[in-house]
Amino acid sequence: MYQHTRELQFTAKPEKPDALYAMKLQEILGGQFGEMTVMMQYLFQGWNCRIPGKYKDMLLDIGTEEISHVEMITVMIARLLEGAPGETTEKAAAANPVLAAVLGGQNPQHAIVSGGGGQPKDSRGVPWNGGYIVSSGNLLTDFRSNAAAEGQSRLQSSRLANMTDDRGVKDMLAFNLARDTYHQQQWLLGIQMLVEEGYVENEIENSNGDWENKDAAHVFYTSTNGSRAGEGLWATGNSVIDGEPFRAEPLRPLTDDDAVLPAPDPLQYVTYDGSQGPGKPGNAAGAVGQQAENVVTKVKDAITGDKH
Amino acid sequence: MYQHTRELQFTAKPEKPDALYAMKLQEILGGQFGEMTVMMQYLFQGWNCRIPGKYKDMLLDIGTEEISHVEMITVMIARLLEGAPGETTEKAAAANPVLAAVLGGQNPQHAIVSGGGGQPKDSRGVPWNGGYIVSSGNLLTDFRSNAAAEGQSRLQSSRLANMTDDRGVKDMLAFNLARDTYHQQQWLLGIQMLVEEGYVENEIENSNGDWENKDAAHVFYTSTNGSRAGEGLWATGNSVIDGEPFRAEPLRPLTDDDAVLPAPDPLQYVTYDGSQGPGKPGNAAGAVGQQAENVVTKVKDAITGDKH
Amino acid sequence: MYQHTRELQFTAKPEKPDALYAMKLQEILGGQFGEMTVMMQYLFQGWNCRIPGKYKDMLLDIGTEEISHVEMITVMIARLLEGAPGETTEKAAAANPVLAAVLGGQNPQHAIVSGGGGQPKDSRGVPWNGGYIVSSGNLLTDFRSNAAAEGQSRLQSSRLANMTDDRGVKDMLAFNLARDTYHQQQWLLGIQMLVEEGYVENEIENSNGDWENKDAAHVFYTSTNGSRAGEGLWATGNSVIDGEPFRAEPLRPLTDDDAVLPAPDPLQYVTYDGSQGPGKPGNAAGAVGQQAENVVTKVKDAITGDKH
Amino acid sequence: MYQHTRELQFTAKPEKPDALYAMKLQEILGGQFGEMTVMMQYLFQGWNCRIPGKYKDMLLDIGTEEISHVEMITVMIARLLEGAPGETTEKAAAANPVLAAVLGGQNPQHAIVSGGGGQPKDSRGVPWNGGYIVSSGNLLTDFRSNAAAEGQSRLQSSRLANMTDDRGVKDMLAFNLARDTYHQQQWLLGIQMLVEEGYVENEIENSNGDWENKDAAHVFYTSTNGSRAGEGLWATGNSVIDGEPFRAEPLRPLTDDDAVLPAPDPLQYVTYDGSQGPGKPGNAAGAVGQQAENVVTKVKDAITGDKH
Amino acid sequence: MYQHTRELQFTAKPEKPDALYAMKLQEILGGQFGEMTVMMQYLFQGWNCRIPGKYKDMLLDIGTEEISHVEMITVMIARLLEGAPGETTEKAAAANPVLAAVLGGQNPQHAIVSGGGGQPKDSRGVPWNGGYIVSSGNLLTDFRSNAAAEGQSRLQSSRLANMTDDRGVKDMLAFNLARDTYHQQQWLLGIQMLVEEGYVENEIENSNGDWENKDAAHVFYTSTNGSRAGEGLWATGNSVIDGEPFRAEPLRPLTDDDAVLPAPDPLQYVTYDGSQGPGKPGNAAGAVGQQAENVVTKVKDAITGDKH
Amino acid sequence: MYQHTRELQFTAKPEKPDALYAMKLQEILGGQFGEMTVMMQYLFQGWNCRIPGKYKDMLLDIGTEEISHVEMITVMIARLLEGAPGETTEKAAAANPVLAAVLGGQNPQHAIVSGGGGQPKDSRGVPWNGGYIVSSGNLLTDFRSNAAAEGQSRLQSSRLANMTDDRGVKDMLAFNLARDTYHQQQWLLGIQMLVEEGYVENEIENSNGDWENKDAAHVFYTSTNGSRAGEGLWATGNSVIDGEPFRAEPLRPLTDDDAVLPAPDPLQYVTYDGSQGPGKPGNAAGAVGQQAENVVTKVKDAITGDKH
Q1: By the CB < 8 Å criterion, does A75 face chain D?
Q2: Interacting residues of D210 by C-beta distance below 8 A, sequence separation 6+
Q3: Angle, nearest 10°, between helix axes C139-161 and C167-196?
Q4: What is the pLDDT of residues C272-297, one digit of tens each?
Q5: Which residues touch B297 (CB under 8 Å, ≥6 apart)?
Q6: pLDDT, tens digit, 9 for 90 and up, residues B5-57
Q7: B–F: how many Cβ contacts below 8 A?
Q8: Distances from the Cα of E9 to the Cαs of D59, E71, E103, F226, in angstroms?
Q9: Closest in A102, A218, A254 to B9, CB measured
Q10: Which residues of F are less than 8 Å from C269 in CB distance?
């Protein structure tokens, strides 16, 4: 359950309004790596976490902090929009011709839709969506995704910080940058703990590793003429899974499978030359193969009491 | 520029059709972490890479390999759909009642839209979109995002592998799993090289680190009652940036900023009690503040030749 | 700023797992009127609210409660997914043929993507997006949107409640239904207070009402042959704005404007018969009319010091 | 079935072109509350309405009028785009430097994609989508959603009207504003009639109200420190359902359910500490519980003729 | 302006309900090539058409007919959903075990969201969006897009027709198929008329054809090993533009441009090896080149009265 | 399988940077008809093609060429962005006031997100998505869709070409225009070959043509007052299917079906007047009708060995 405190986590007061910058700041509110993404990502990971204690608590603690960041940026945007042009374009431009640039560049929805408030959208007006987040239940892969998200988020904040001289904005971003610096390390240390505590053997997602294609796990395939990629550690180093060396090879087919498809269902009017024999109308049996027959057998057995 | 070879990179032949599994396999074709995502992500990163040589080549080499993976999965899906029900539902169910399950669960668009072929969509029919990919131009953050994507992709492939006994499908997935095992390491080794070659000081995105909020870069904020998150390395370890110790603290406001907003533009009909003084119609000047005045001054100077 | 409490707001324990129902329950988590929508809608309205005190507090209080509801439903979904089929389809179906139905109907991403956890998506797998929410800064219109959202949300929860006999699920839904009953009234009472306190004259959004087309504000247009819509209060009652009677009239053009368009820019290759005279290449001047000329004049004046 | 009349419903002629305003006007054509939304919303509600006569006729009458509004705004946008810059940017800017602002701010797709015509997109270029509309079959909740949509739509039109001095645009918007004033009342009067005619007991969606959680239907939960929300009618008034008083209480957990999740399926590689006992591979039986067993029993009964 | 007639254009009565088929039929209502697409596509093309008379009338006539088709399919879906499972899953399955299949396969939103009515979504629940339609103002390209849309739409309807034996459904689809047969021809005949009436020289969009790369307009590039594509008319025929022969050639770079990028702005932290010289902070001047300088010159001239 | 060559297919070097043009050029990279669309469309059609030889090779050859085009445009965009403003807005504007226009109009994500590189998005920032492409398995309809896509793509490129004087950009576009000229013809010649080789009887998709509604396949319905659409070949010509003449008729209902819906499931709370008799709770049996009974019968038969 959640509670709210009236005060912000950190001050979000610009020295002066700047409608163009408000438009840009939307990127770290509702963009791919905006605060809404990390908030939702950590909350869903936390709610879905199967380890009561420090991992689950950590996920929910930081997820909750991120709600506070969404709040902080939204307040900053509303303040940056103070006095943003909501009146006749002609009048505004006539009063100060340079403003024509702002009139062109600002987010029109800040005036038409949100009444001077922030929106759950990116800097170009694309709504935030749930397809941005990751929550797999597997902490190793999720922690790495989280470290990556903090890195991208920090980079965007850092670029945005270079686009303003406003001390109020910069103070808030100095706080955000620091949190992202810390959080990147937090997730990497989380991975280190998962290894130390034996949840995973190493930092590589390796489930079903016992039957994966061993050879394919050690080769870099070059496909570009004159590729120098073979100079990298990924071709000269060793696997952390089994210690075997990596190597580089030209990309080539490992099969003579030339991708010819089976005859199509004639009732779907797929253009076909007959080269794979006559197509048959789909009958579902084809589509489930042996499985369907097994099930029919089992239904009979369930009723007749037979056991195989 | 790109070339095509008729043979697939690896064999993609199921032992028998399975329309339900074809629906599920769409997840690693057109889902958030499907082959289309890594293909587009690496290609865009490669085309945008500013270091001719091993890094750019590596990005384009692997991006090109991923096109081959998109092709491989698409062929596998078309083959799994052989004989999938395209005819009258009633007839199919009557011929074999168990098939009703398949009739309910399969992807109807595989019959109605794509004529038995794969689609650039996920397992639930949501189209792949460009919002899934990352390409920032900063190799450190992008390589970490890539390692994360490979981890998520591998996990999904591994779960899918557990959902079938088909040897043909499993052989192909054994190849995919191995590539994902290798690629995870490749990206992490890429980060290691960036550090070794001096492109970055360490593995943490830290631009503008000289003026970020130092204190905020060392603290974990707990917000959950009885949180045990303070037991983690993220609270007991040290920063790799400056070696200073991390600590845990209860989340609290670091400000008395209570998020009160400025008076709104009266022409936007925002409900307001007047407590922040009278609102003024937006005039853009407000929205750009000093900047606009500076620019007007500069226009004059440019013409009069003045220098400040 | 936000805090988290480990306990849920209300118990979310199903009597037994039900993977099909978990798929359906996603609708009120990440659907158009799911808990994510009201959570984000109320939080954004609260952060953007310009009246410190009871209105802003109320928005943020209820927004915060809704975070707790998102948490509650997500936990319920994870519990409903216990034991959901993650293994070979064939084996599961063979063990119990009836399960084939569940295998067809369940959300495949619950197994492949989220590892048995809830997702920020609707019951059909479409990700939640920011285009669902409303936050205009105008409390009258937003409160009505909120009352409407609670009504739709309650209706969906009520229908979902009729689809299960699980006492645990029903207990939680009995709580959700009650909150939605209460919240519908809360928003309507909010509108009543806005009128009583003089923020608006009546319950109708009526800005710029002084110059709107008075006649068009009193007529219902019928366009269907034999329409009986004229029997409704909307045709027989009176306007709450000015007390004047409403009436019904057949829909008819109120103009002879036959929608003929101007000549196109020839550089855009728009097919055109020349009937509106020769088209001219766009020159922006046309597109901004007098405004552009005004601005040029003002630039000159700013520098020469002229005043009009 | 539908018919078309060549004349527009109302004149849509701007005094002069204005490419920037054309971009903004897209908001009420293809935005969240643009004319496309109300058109589709009312048509779908009408087609799905189960009461032949005044309600269904009213829905279809107004839905048909809204098609005419979509047409009207689209024509207005095409006329506002007359002479919009489609040629070399450099030339246009050189001919009149102030135009650079328009060149930056206008919708590039109006030149590149639509050849000077309107688009089914909002002011920022996001395509209209079917997730904006509501059609539940329940007229009470749908009418309230409709009243809310008309309010938001009117507010946006009113703000847009304040952004131009063009008499032609203002005349059309004066008509639109009036229709929205009227339509807001129409939907509220529709709710009043539903109550008067006994379709619902009162204005609150209250299905399954007999077993909802009574206590939770009467309390406002405050979660903000020092919240003054308890001063509102929603805490001091009475329920219209049962006349019982409302009250305010601090938000607190109503349960000791601490959201611990069950053991995960080991085949999904969800990170887990074993604290909830060993996880078992999903077998679908777990996921459907008693239901599956009932069905198997019923299959047997159907064949053996047994009755319970 | 539009009018509505109570009767449908064609009968839409199924012999019996079929919830699974209702789910599938959504594809031709709200899918990529559903009736909503052609309706919106033709209406926007008609509203934006610059030739008063037969072309504009034709576009608006058929666009209006398509509204009637959207209505027809929506009514059919609502009728197919009669008696669709809205109650407890367990009860339904127990009453008739085979129904479990329907319970798994049907569209849950038909029960939870739309109350047994159709939705503006495709068969997998993805909302219709404005990105599906085409309206360029150029009738040649739009008519060809229209013919293509009718072809895809007809193919999907034809496949759907093969999935049912219901005479009522088949009668309606026989009408739809015929309209699509006719409409395909209509658009192709429209192209023929555009040529005959001199709006275009031939059936190929060829604007700016005078300076396009002539050689590149006559060659097919093969990129697959052993490609037999050179056997096609596209390699053995002649251009309709200039009568010159086509030919096939292996795909090869026509340049030595190896895609090396310029030095990046150091303030964006793009990883870079310095090989292209030092990067400079962006200054916009770089980004607009000569154009910006021209404009500054023009501003000065506008004020000083100079003419070049 | 795919290979990469370091050189581009064609030179992509602008004479000078132009950040505004880079924003616009995104339309033909990641827009509805950008290079990503044709690339994905042809690759999916090729992978799904059931005719080994010239058709499948042709699809894969051109799909592969289009990957090269995506690369080419992306490189061009990165070069156009050289020196694009990434620093403080105020400083840039102060250095050269005219640049304010560029600062307003440029794509902010080019600076914040992609570090000066291209993105898989359109000119307004909407991400490319898989819903843009077509791959039906039916070559006739797909080839026509392809010809249409090339036409729209060429038109957009041609309009873009008119917006710049940069020789480098124009050279590349001259190549793109030529390829689109050629490709339009290629697809139309492909249709001609399909007819000549007997895969289809004529150029019209006509599956299930034997039982479509013959009369409805020959009539144009006018619905606009005074429509002149009857003057077109589509009303005066003959069908290519059967040679019968077309005609024009006023649109009218061909049925007295007035779209009344059946009684709703009372458990869904759909507003209803009882006029169609009492509604019954959904029981799925209703929703599958005779089909369900057939299946139950078949289950019994399968076990008892009965044959009907």
Answers
A1: no
A2: none
A3: 160
A4: 999 999 887 765 444 444 444 444 44
A5: B308
A6: 999 999 999 999 988 899 999 999 999 999 999 999 999 999 999 999 999 99
A7: 178
A8: 19, 9, 33, 20
A9: A254
A10: 155, 158-159
